[in-house]
TrEMBL record:
This is DUF983 domain-containing protein. Keywords: Membrane, Transmembrane, Transmembrane helix. The lineage of its organism: Bacteria, Pseudomonadati, Bacteroidota, Flavobacteriia, Flavobacteriales. The chain crosses the membrane at residues 58-78, 84-104. Pfam families: DUF983.
Length: 124
């Protein structure tokens, strides 16, 4: 349960203190978030191999679809908006939440495949 808080705070999966991202990015300025290569607190390697975050795209896809379906249900069945308004709202939401989804999907990916360091463990 506590992992959810650390995921939302974007903290290191090993020590849960160091930040994963050095900048949050801004979709309006076309700036993507920037990651640290290693944790500043415990030296955990965030980028384990080239293409490590390829799978995070699937996590991002699932997050985006969940958000889109939530907006669709809210707009169509709760508020009662027309289809074109819902479509426009979903497109705007997809752009605005793009950097958030990017960071969240990578953080979830890191937590899914984390290797907790044990004392005496030497990382290559
Ligand atoms: Zn750390």
């Amino acid at each position: 349960m506590a992992d959810i808080l650390y995921i939302l705070k974007e903290k290191c999966p090993n020590c849960e203190k160091g930040d994963i991202f050095e900048s949050k990015g801004n979709p309006f300025l076309f700036r993507m978030p920037k990651m640290h290569r290693r944790c500043h607190n415990c030296d955990y390697n965030f980028i384990r191999e080239p293409g490590y975050f390829f799978g995070a795209m699937y996590v991002s896809y699932a997050l985006t679809i969940a958000e889109m379906v939530a907006v669709l249900i809210l707009g169509k069945f709760v508020i009662g908006l027309g289809n074109i308004y819902i479509f426009v709202i979903i497109m705007i939401m997809a752009v605005v939440s793009s950097t958030f989804n990017f960071r969240l999907s990578r953080t979830i990916w890191l937590y899914m495949f984390r290797k907790k360091k044990t004392p005496g463990h030497i990382e290559v």
